[in-house]
Amino acid sequence: MKPAPFDYLRAGTVQEAQAALAAEGEGARVIAGGQSLVAMLNMRLARPTLLVDVMHVAGGAEIRVERGQLVVPFAVRQAALLNRRDLLSEVPLLAAALPWVGHVQTRARGTVCGSVAHADPSAEIALALVALDGRVHLRGRGARRLPAAEFFTGMMQTAARPDEMIEAVSFPLSQEGTGHAFNEVGIRHGDFAIVSVAAIATGDRLRLAIGGVNDTPLVRDWSSLDERQVDDALNDLAWSLDARNDLHATARYRRDLVRRLGRKTIKEARQCAA
Amino acid sequence: MRRLIADQTHSISLKLNGKPVHAEAEPRMLLSDFIRHVLGAKGTHVGCEHGVCGACTVRMDDGLARSCLTLAVQADGAEIETVEHLAPAPGSLSVLQNSFRRHHALQCGFCTAGILMSLDTLLHDHPEAGETEIRDALAGHLCRCTGYEPIVTAAMEAAKILQKERLNA
């Protein structure tokens, strides 16, 4: 339960951090809040040769609004985003999902981009990012921006290359007339989600995003879905998922949560939109 | 930008409970071990060492931190406060600690140091906190003795006393 040895480097700029990652290759990892990574180090599930600390890079914690997007850079802690005064009007889905991320104690240290980089299948921030068609800003020798759906490639797997770090993630600002809702079931509040559901409703259009079941967040769109069609649609969705039995829940229980949480979350999102 | 080499110790300076301290640690040393074994402050307890039980919770630069999920090198330059900081003077207890004692909010006491840090921070940052906020803060801690009810009662009483004190201050 103690980490294996690694070197540590506190970067002063993004360029320094990126150069260190590029020079080290596969063995390098970025450390930000460390709330997922240090647990993995302690259990020796991760054995990096170098940790590059990016929390002291100037400007890394400054959230900004830019061209209709809320841009959240790499050093923004989850608590800082949750406490942002205008978050509920800017990105209501994040305001609904963030209280479900870990606990008060881990949100105080854990970062938004760190959770995205970790790519846990049950992570709420990843689910919100995919549901909203957000983007991941990567910085390697050059810069590129990937749609969230392309960034998450599997369980704890992403499209980031070893020499790239996440410079920011961006969430589209909410449009008037759109309703958002989020719900989750876990063993206890703050535990990993067994199933989490995000719903976005605009007029007749509806989008659902499901976390905790497949290896990456799954999104389904309907151009219209009236009250009589909801149960059938949710049943089809539940069966189309790759629900599995594990220590925490059976596949059947997961499908039932998708149906029940799905119905509740759709209703809430439509009420918000009205 | 200096690379700290894995199997060497490096000097770390931080403030522990208001006092500047300097000591040495390898990059892989956890803040929890640094506080206990290097700095000798044994009030902070270590339970699960992967961020689940909450026993090792400390205050770091005004926010809470699991000291087992923090490296000592990350805390270089930080201000750390531990349970030793809560009592106003030797031989006396803080309002929250007194409420814990009155309501039997601990039995074995293993989880208590972390819980006190979380609740002390909550009542400081949100003096108006009620049962919902107290239970939310407690969700990040495991206690196997009390069943949590006496802890909630103690925290709610402490909140009331502190609110009154603030009115009369």
UniProtKB/TrEMBL annotation, chain A:
Q: Which UniProt keywords apply?
A: FAD, Flavoprotein, Oxidoreductase
In this chain the FAD-binding PCMH-type domain maps to 1-176
Pfam short name (any one): FAD_binding_5
Please name the GO terms that the record assigns under molecular function.
FAD binding; oxidoreductase activity
**Keyword Cell inner membrane on entry:** no
Q: Does the keyword Cytoplasm apply?
A: no
User: Which PANTHER family does the UniProt entry name for this protein?
Assistant: XANTHINE DEHYDROGENASE SUBUNIT C-RELATED
User: This protein is called what?
Assistant: Dehydrogenase FAD-binding subunit
Lineage runs: Bacteria, Pseudomonadati, Pseudomonadota, Alphaproteobacteria, Rhodobacterales
